[in-house]
Amino acid sequence: MTPDNSLIQQTYADYRSHFGGEPEVAAFAPGRIEVLGNHTDYNEGYVLSAAIDLGTCFLAARSPGSRCALYAPDVGEEDVFDAGSFSPCDTHRWANYIKGVIAGLRSHSAIGGLVGCFRSNLPIASGLSSSAALEISSALAIAHLFNAEIPPLELARIGQSAEHHFAGVRCGLLDQVTSLFGKQDELVMMDFRTLAIQTVPLSRDACFVVCNTGVKHTLVDSAYNERRAKCEEAATFFNSVLPRPIGALRDVTWAEWEQHSKAMDPDAARRSAHVIGENERVLKGMDLLRHGQLPEFGQLMFSSHASSREYFENSCAELDYIVEQASSLNGVLGARLSGGGFGGSALLLVHERSAADVSRKIADLYAGRFGKHCEVRRVSASAGAHML
Ligand code: GLA
Question: Which residue has the higher pLDDT, 216 or 15?
């Protein structure tokens, strides 16, 4: 699916009215859904994901000297800094993602002054990776602007490094890789140890519905970093008790977890149970998809959510309610939280013919239970980031 034309036109209109003249480059990067494999990426495991038909459009042009000006029309803010010296700032947090990208690009190529403007149709903080879409669209556009030839995996790392050093989130590579390697009507399967990527078609009979709870845990970034630290602690534990080197939780089997978990710190035991189970589910899920066994695949999504709820404790009442209701609706194959968790979106895999009906029912049930609106929309597996 091509990016929404009205998004692109609106971004051009904003660019022209703010900076005057025409941009030299334009790029689009999509958000993503995480279909199976939760918090497995930074544990060197496996994830099935897809780029979606919502994303960010970034326009830029060179400007004399080293002055950089970034404009975010939807909040009406401009951030101005020097390309040679800048650091993350608290006033325009959205600019930190782009500054982090520029810092990463500078280690490959000379980056001078520029003006940039972006717009997105991704809901912010909804678990659909609006920050990765901003990083990747700006990275592609600015790399092009300064003729820097950077391989896609390196661009993904530059986006990740912006999160680590300019936003304070020790995320894995999932969001950036999916935004770059998405393919229309296909899921992306990535092995985060070898960094091998393959895509697998999604049956035409099925589609995805995203339900954005609008909930954002106030300490979501620190909770994410804390979960990651517990996973690393668990890997260190397994390395000390198993007879072979354990580089990451990816190397531990469920049978080994069962054998040793009683001797572990209880938090590290629960967090690692989730990751180890998720890795096994993704491998099984790939097999099921290849054989067209969608109902069985959907059951893995429900198991994944139960594991998030019980072991990783990154769900919330709103997500649990949606997944539980979805499980008894006709036409729903599977449902789970998608992405970091602690709020954000639930992802439903539904029969194509039931998508409209399921969406309406979930929105009504949610409003009845919580007295607030839940944004429910159908999304399609789409192509990855590209120049426009
Ligand atoms: C966020 C992070 C990803 C990944 C997911 C959870 O989206 O940015 O790297 O860890 O959470 O699977």
Answer: 15
Q: Is the CB of 41 under 6 A from ligand 1?
A: yes
* Alpha carbon separation from 372 to 126, 158, 351 (Å, rounded): 16, 38, 26
Considering the domain architecture, whether residues 284 and 375 belong to the same structural domain is answered as yes
Q: Nearest C-alpha to atom 9 of ligand 1 is from which residue? A: 172
Within this chain, do residues 27 and 88 fall inside the same structural domain, yes or no? yes
Q: Is residue 105 part of a domain?
A: yes
Q: Evaluate the CA torsion angle 332, 123, 388, 105 in order and state its sign.
A: negative
CATH of the domain at 369: 3.30.70.890
CA gap 201, 221 in Å, rounded? 33
> Does the annotation count 175 as an active-site position?
yes
Is the shortest distance between the CB of 45 and ligand 1 below 6 Å? no
Can you tell me the mean pLDDT for 176-182?
98
Residue 251 falls within a domain, yes or no?
yes
Domain range spanning residue 154? Answer: 5-31+51-185
Question: For residue 37, which atom of ligand 1 is closest to its CA?
Answer: 12
pLDDT at 16: 97
| pTM (whole model) above 0.90 | yes
Nearest-atom index, ligand 1, CA of 42: 10
Ligand 1 center from residue 102 Cα (angstroms): 22
